[in-house]
Amino acid sequence: MIDEFTARRVTADPERARHLLLQMLRARRFEEKCVELYSAAKIRGFMHVYIGEEAVAAGVMAALEPEDAVLAIYREHGHALLRGVLAGAILAEMYGYEQGCCRGRGGSMHLFDAATRFYGGNAIVAGGLPLAVGLALADKMAGRDRVTVCFFGEGAVAEGEFHESINLAALWQLPVLFRCENNLYAMGTALGRSESQTDIALKAAAYEVPAWPVDGMDVLAVEETARRAVHMVRAGGGPHFLELSTYRFRAHSMYDPERYREKAEVATWLERDPIDLLRAALEAAGELPAKTWAAVQGEVDSEVQAAVEFAKAGTPEPVEDLTRFLYTERGPK
Amino acid sequence: MKTTYREAMRAAIREAMTRDDRVFLMGEDVGRYGGCFAVSLGLLEEFGPERIRDTPLSESGFVGAGIGAALGGMRPIVEIMTVNFSLLALDQIMNNAATLRHMSGGQFSVPLVIRMTPGAGRQLAAQHSHSLEGWYAHIPGLRILTPSTLEDARGMLWTALQDPDPVLIFEHGSLYNVAGEIADDAGAVDIDTAAVRRSGRDVSLITYGGTLQITLDAAEPLAQEGIDAEVFDLRTLRPLDDAAILATVARTHRAVIVDEGWRSGSISAEVSARITESAFFDLDAPVGRVCSVDSAAALRQAPGTGRTPLRRPRRRRGPGGGGHPWVTS
Ligand SMILES: Cc1ncc(C[n+]2csc(CCOP(=O)(O)OP(=O)(O)O)c2C)c(N)n1
Ligand SMILES: [Mg+2]
C-alpha cells in the first residue's frame, strides 16, 4: 500500500525519485558484490556493509555541493560511492591494491578521496566528529560557505567525543551537519542497553543545536530534510543535527553470528526496505515502467562488473613503499 | 637582548600569527586567562578571540578540531595545558594526526602543531608530573621537539609550522622562567639536528629539554674531578639524529643518557639501543642511564632535591676499564 503522501511526493518530482532509486541501488548492488567477494576471500580485513541503510547516504549526498566535505565511519562504502568516488577505486582499495583510492593501505574501513573531499573512513567510533568540527572551523575562519557533513552511528552517542564535538560546533556556530545513523545496534548492543536517554535528537538539542528525527527508510524524506538542513547550515545557521532511524539488514561485520536480535525483528524491518518502498511508489504512480527499471538495473550491474574487473587487474603496492607518506617527502636540505 | 623562555615562546607565536593568517592558537585558557603558564598573555588583546581561541575542557574535541582545521587548510597551534591532559586526546593524536597522511596514501596531510608542558616541576603528585615525550616519540607519523634553550624556544615553532606533518612541542615547565640573552634577530632554527651544548672528551651526557641545564650543571663538578663531559642535546626525539648521536659516542667512547621519563621503555632506552646497535665497538663501557624511577610521582619523596623525581646519581666503578667513576641509576 502506497500512502497518499508518498504518492504525491513521487509524482511531484519523478525524476528526482528515480535518481534516488538509482543511487540506492548502486550502493546495494555494490555491497552485495562485496559480500560475495569477501566470501571468496578476495577482500580482506574487517568489512561492514550498509545494506538496508542506503537511503541515509543517498538522501544527503543529493543535497551537497562538490566543495562540501564528507566524513563517515567504517561502514562507508556506500557513502564513498554516492559521494562520487569511483567504484573501481573503492573495490581495488578493499583488495589492498595500489590502484585503490588509498593505494590499498586502508581497505574497507579507511576510504579517503581528496577529489571529492571525502575524509574517511574512520574506524574509531566517534573519532571523526572532532575532525568535522575542525574542517568546519577552517571554513568559517576563512569565510567560505562550505558545509561539512559528518556521518556516525548511534553507538557514537555514548562516546565523549560526540558530546565534545556537538558542544564545540554549537559554541562556535560552525557549518557542520551531524548525521546520526540510528540503526538501533552498536555491534550487539541495542540502543536501550547503552543509553539512559534513547532520544538522540534530544541530546543534540540539549546543546542548542536544531535537531530532527527522520525516517531513514524514506529516502524522499531524508533528501528533503537534508536539503533544508544543508541550506540552513550553509546560510550561517550553525550546526544542525539529523537522526535517521534505519536498520542494517545484514550482520554487523563479516564475523557476526547475530545472536543479539530476533529473526522476526529483522523480518519486520525488511518490509521497510528503502529501495522496495520507493520502487513500489514509483510503479504505483506509473513512473517506473518495466523497461526503465530494467535499464536502471542494467546500468548498476555494469558499473559493479566494471569495478570488479578494475579491482581484479590491480597490483599490491611494493612492500618497500610501506613507509612512504608517513611523512611528507621533503626536498634536499 | 634579554628574554625568558616564556617570552621567547610568546614572541614565536606572535611572529607566526603576524606572518601567516592561517595560524591561530587554541586551547584551554589561552585567551582571557593568558595561558596557564602565561605564555600567551597579551595575545588575545593583540589578535582577538577568533585567533586566540579559548576552548572548553574538551581535549579530544579541540585537538581533533585542530587536526580538522589543519586538513581544511589552516595552520593551528593547539595548546594542551600539560602533557597529563593530553592523554584525553591521545586517540586524536595517534589515530588521526599521526595516521591520516599514510592511511590516505598521501592525499591528506595534517600541518598541525601541538604544544604542551611535561615534567615533574614542583611536587605536583602523580597526575601532574608525567614526562611522556618519549612515549609520543614512539609514534610514527609525528615529529617530537623538546626545546631546551632560549634560541630553540624562539625558533622551533616557526619551522614546525612550515612542516606539513603534525609536530608536538614539549616545553618543560621548569624552563619558562629561565632568563638570558638572545640575539635581537633570533628566529627560525632547524628541527632536524641534535646539538652539542658542551664539548668534552671523556663521556657523552645525552639529554634533552628540561634536563639539559641539570646535565650542564653536572658537567662542572665532573670537570673538577678530571672528567671532561660532552653534553649533547637531542632537541628532536623523533626522528632522532642518529648520525650526531653516533658521532658524539665515537668522540668520547662513553655515553650516559639523562631522561626525566620512566626508565623502562623510555626514549633513553631507545637511544641506548641505537648506540649499542651501531656504535658498540666505539664504546669503552656500557651505556649508562639516569632516569626517573619506575613509580608514580609522590608529593614529597626526594628530600633535598625537592624538584624532580630523578633518582640522585649513585656512583660505582664502571666496568670495562678506563677507571672513571660511572654514573648510573
Ligand atoms: C572507540 C571504539 N570502541 C569500540 C570499537 C569497536 N566497534 C566497532 S563498530 C562498533 C559498534 C558501533 O556502532 P554504531 O556506532 O552504532 O555504528 P554501526 O556499526 O551500527 O553502523 C564497535 C563497538 C571501535 N571501533 N571504536
Ligand atoms: Mg548502530
From TrEMBL, chain A:
It is an enzyme of class 1 (oxidoreductase). It comes from the Bacteria. InterPro entries: DH_E1, PDH_E1_Alpha_Subunit, Pyrv_DH_E1_asu_subgrp-y, THDP-binding. SUPFAM superfamilies: Thiamin diphosphate-binding fold (THDP-binding). Its cofactor is thiamine diphosphate. GO terms for biological process: pyruvate decarboxylation to acetyl-CoA. Its EC number is 1.2.4.1. Keywords: Oxidoreductase, Pyruvate, Thiamine pyrophosphate. It catalyses: N(6)-[(R)-lipoyl]-L-lysyl-[protein] + pyruvate + H(+) = N(6)-[(R)-S(8)-acetyldihydrolipoyl]-L-lysyl-[protein] + CO2. GO terms for molecular function: magnesium ion binding; pyruvate dehydrogenase (acetyl-transferring) activity. Residues 24-314 form the Dehydrogenase E1 component domain. The keyword Oxidoreductase applies. PANTHER family: PYRUVATE DEHYDROGENASE E1 COMPONENT SUBUNIT ALPHA, PYRUVATE DEHYDROGENASE E1 COMPONENT, ALPHA SUBUNIT BACTERIAL AND ORGANELLAR. Heterodimer of an alpha and a beta chain. The pyruvate dehydrogenase complex catalyzes the overall conversion of pyruvate to acetyl-CoA and CO(2). This is Pyruvate dehydrogenase E1 component subunit alpha. It comes from Cryobacterium shii. The gene is pdhA.
